[in-house]
């Protein structure tokens, strides 16, 4: 069963009207397609779209749309990002994102027919959060190290200054 958008079915029907006018008078030429549609914020549903040339007007097409099933088709597909979009969101270069993909950092990466990588937006958000946590940890570590080094330098300076000013009887 091939799923198509309603728009593509309608365009296909309208494109085939001139070819079918040559075969006019054949009312049994009803084409039926299955499409997925959804209202905003609701899950996808499957519909059957049947269309045929109007027997009274050969330039018109009659459509009939009815639910194929009363069940929802489940959640809509997760949004996918290109490697460039992911790089922009992560504030890194695109080649670095490609390296992360090849290293397996991102889960659920798909390839298009043209070979382009598509990364789930949720995975990009997860990696972004992990990068922020590691940045904060590194910054705290650097801050701790610099404070310790600063204190050590002050102690050494005090010790050195005490030696210089020792009273000689």
UniProtKB/TrEMBL annotation:
InterPro entries assigned to the protein according to its UniProt record, in alphabetical order: HTH_17, SinI_DNA-bd
Pfam families: HTH_17 (PF12728)
Domain of life: Bacteria
Identification of the protein by name: Helix-turn-helix domain-containing protein
Species this chain originates from: Bordetella genomosp. 10
Coiled-coil intervals: none
Gene Ontology MF: a single term: DNA binding
Domain Helix-turn-helix, first and last residues per copy: 80-129
